[in-house]
Each structure stands twice: as structure tokens, then as C-alpha cells.
């Protein structure tokens, strides 16, 4: 028997299997967590995912407060502005500025020609910097949206950061170079390092820390002189963050571990080990020791960076098992692999896929507020027990060509019938 997978496929199923391994997790995304940002007051978190959504979380109530949906593809970068507004950017090369509680962006910033992978806000809150695989950095005025293009990188630009004085901007790229753009004239100082660079962060005292594909962290002075290096792990470093007091560095690796570095002594203090899947994003909370990590399994975890222990609290859009009331229902068990992406009620926080509340009788791609694939909008399918069964009998690629849903089938007619019967009971309004 093949159970239906949601949009994240095997990663979502692994999230279910590994739930007991590391319990400090926020659950709500239906794909890898590509980006994290902590709010200025320290009580909120913003996450961006490969599932095309961003989620605003409360760190006080341990709940997801808002799902931000605009982007047509993965959300690679997120930041908070000083006034509490949020910024998201991604593979669709668009930047969206959001106000909490509003369902649509208040402003769009467009100009990049390839995926945007990193964002940074100037210390005075006046400018936004973006790094893109179109080999450019853009500096955006947050007052009027005007942008300035900083050119020079010869390959993908993977990271961008402002020093604390705001007088320059640092970018790193796959071309092995770190560039310090002196503002306002924008003339760069170029430093070539031994390996392609994936991430950059700047400490409160101005020291620059970069992560590279050779698993090394390299430290540079504010004027670009190499001042130290530490081996973070055997696999590429893909994200770097520094605690508010500048004491600790966290470096996330594609191999699934996070290295905690003492910045002053240039020593590896400990390595955080999760379920073995890539860790794409890291952020310190304002207490200077709690680390938030975002993984390929779609979960956000909390750690005590000083002890290396996972923090034991389960944080989610809905903390209880949504299928607990259906214990013993075969149809619910067939559906279980889908709960990471689809809710049964429109009262729950929306996940990667549309809610299934009121599914039967609804035309395909007609649910308000969800960004469906353009191909689905032209189809004349109404969801019924028969059409849902057909979807999983022949597979999404055949029944709904152009969908973003991965190919999946349920070979057993009995299982398909159990699933459609269950959906009829669980999704009726």
C-alpha cells in the first residue's frame, strides 16, 4: 500500500517519524525551513520555507499567528523591520513587505532577475539589502522603494549583512569573494577566500564571519583582513548567526549538524545533532543562549546553545494530534501522511497546501486566499469522493497536470474508499 504524501514528500513523512527524537520544534510548514528572523522585541519569529509560505510565530504563546502567502516559489529570506513590519523574498525574485495581520503585502520590490537568497536591514532601518543569484546586490530605500544595483560578483551572491555602524555593506558569493561596499559611494573592497561562500554575519564589534562550502568559518576584520578560522564540520556551511553579545557563533551545515563556536577563543564548543537532515537556517534569541534552527524536515527547533541540549517544549500551529479524535479510523490513517500540508478545518493555521474544509462540492483551485498553480485554474474538476479517488488512482501528474503536488498513488481501492469516506466526515462544515 502506498500512502499519499503531501507537498514535501519524504521529508514530511520523516518529520512524523522523527517527532520524538528532538522535541523542541514548531510545526506548521510543509517543507524545509529556509530562513528565520527574530522580531526586534524578541517575542516573535518569522520563518520562510520551500513550501512558498512564511509564518509569523509568537514566542510567548508558542503558536503560529499568521501565514503569509504571496510568493510563487520557495521563500528563501525573511527579516523584520525596526517598526515590526516583515519582509519576505524568494525564488520568484520578488520582495514583499508585510504588516502584521494583513493578508496581502503592502509593497512589492521588484528588479532582481533570479532567486533572492538573503536579506539584511540597515542599522538605522532606512535601507534593505538583497542578495541574488543574478550576481547582484540591491540596496532598497524603505521610504520610497527606490533601488541601487551593486555589481561585481561573477557568480551567485549568497549572503549580505550590514556592519553595526551602517557605513558599509558586506556581500559574499560563490565566486570566492567577500565584498565590502563602502556607502554611500558603493565602491567595493574585494577579498578572495579559499572556497565558495554561502553565508555571512557581522558581530556587534564589526568582525565579519563567513561560512564556506569547505565547512570552514573564517573571521575577518571590519576592513577585510583575515583574523582567524574554525572548522565547523565536514560538510558545507549554509547559514551563520552570531549571538547578541557577540560571544557565540552558530554555523549550520548541509550534513544536519550545527557547530557552536566561541568567537573569542576561535574554538568549537559543541555540535548540535538533530535528525540527520540538512539545517538551512539559524537564529539566536535575545537571551544570547537560545538558538532556533530550521531544518529540511519542516520543523523549527529550540536549543540551549551553551549546553547543547534541546529545549523541551512543543510549539506548533496546533499542538495536539489533529487526528487523535479519529483513532482507529482506517481512513484517518491513510490521510495521516497528509497532515503536514493540509488541515481538515479552516480554523487551523494554514499549512503548505490548502485547507480541505468544505472540500466536496468545491471546484478545483477555487479556495480564496490560496495561490494555486496556474494550470489548475483552467481545469473543470469539482472535488467529490469520485474525483478524489481518481486523483490517487492515476496520480496527480495524469489527473491534474501542471500541479506542484508530487506524483503519488494509492493502489488499493479499499484504501481509496476509506480515505474518501473519511474526508467526507472530517471536512464537512
Automatic annotation (TrEMBL):
Q: Which residues form the Cytochrome c domain?
A: 326-427
User: Which GO molecular-function terms appear in the entry?
Assistant: electron transfer activity; heme binding; metal ion binding
Q: Which PROSITE patterns match?
A: CYTC, WD_REPEATS_2, WD_REPEATS_REGION
Q: Which Pfam families match?
A: Cytochrom_C, WD40
Could you tell me which Gene3D superfamilies the record lists for this protein? Cytochrome c-like domain (1.10.760.10), YVTN repeat-like/Quinoprotein amine dehydrogenase (2.130.10.10)
- List the signal peptide residues: 1-24
- Keyword entries, A-Z: Electron transport, Heme, Iron, Metal-binding, Repeat, Signal, Transport, WD repeat
> What SUPFAM superfamilies is this protein classified in?
Cytochrome c, WD40 repeat-like
WD repeats span 26-67, 68-98, 109-150, 150-191, 272-313
Q: What name goes with this protein?
A: Cytochrome c
